[in-house]
Each structure stands twice: as C-alpha cells, then as structure tokens.
Amino acid sequence: TKQGINQMQTLLYNTMLYPEMFAEIVHRFLNVQGLLKIEKTDISILSQTLMSPMIYYQHFAPKENEESEDEKEEIESIKQARLSIIFFLNHLLSQPVLACQFFNDQFFIESLLSHLYEKPIRPSVIAHLTNYLSQKEAIHNTLIINY
C-alpha cells in the first residue's frame, strides 16, 4: 500500500546517516519482500527511496591512503549499505513487470545510469540494463532511449 511504502521511505531516510542500521533495515525488508505488495503507483516513491541513498552514499568514496581506521570503518559500513540496496534492487528488477515499471521512472533511470561511472557497481547496472532492454516492452520506452 501507499502508506506502507511511505513509511518505508521515512524509515530509510531517517537512518541514512547510520549506514549499518540502514543496511540492516534494508536486509530485513528483503527478508519479508514476499509480503510487500508493490503497486505501479508505488514505483516513483520506491525509486526515490532506494536511489537517493545510493546517490548520497556515492559521495563517501574512499580516498587513496588518506583514511584513518575510523574512516575505513565508516567507508566499509557505507559499502554495506550500498550493497544492501543493490541486493534489494536485484530482487525487484528480477521481476519483469516491476523492472518495466522502474525503467519507466525517469528518476530511477537517471540515478541508475549515473552509477555506470562507478567501477564496482558498473557490472550490476549493466546487467539490469541488459535484462531490461532484452524485454520486448523496452522498445516503447522513450525515456531510456532519449537519455
């Protein structure tokens, strides 16, 4: 339901500053994903809910030989948070109907494609893109063609 997706968004946005907690919550959502009923109208909110933290955490990329032990721990927890989002996206985008709906959301497309420039995440982005583009419905998607 819309209220459930909104509550999920609020919870995840409120924990973004705590990457370990964020990752834990995303993994818990993944464990109960069978109970999540995602409607077409939820896609826009869900897209923002998952991709905004990915973009936010993107700014915490490790710097060569500059980090202290605390910074290394923080970077590792941010990697875990991003990995949890990728796992969740892998699950959602493995469902052709949901994949089509996500790839018809402009924010999702722009956010996902912005991660093509990030070497560790690139294979996942390319895999999702390839899977989607191989579906016959993709030919009608002007959003992705025009990007």
Low-confidence stretches: none
Count of alpha/pi helices: 8
Shape: globular
- Biggest β-sheet: count, sense, barrel? none
**Strand-pairing-aware structural class:** mainly alpha
Tell me what the structure shows.
The chain is mainly alpha-helical and 147 residues long. The chain contains eight helices and no strands.
Top keywords for this entry?
147 residues, mainly alpha, globular
Layout of secondary structure:
Layout: H1 2-15, H2 19-31, H3 43-58, H4 69-93, H5 96-102, H6 106-114, H7 122-133, H8 142-146
Outline:
Helices cover 69% and strands 0% of the residues.
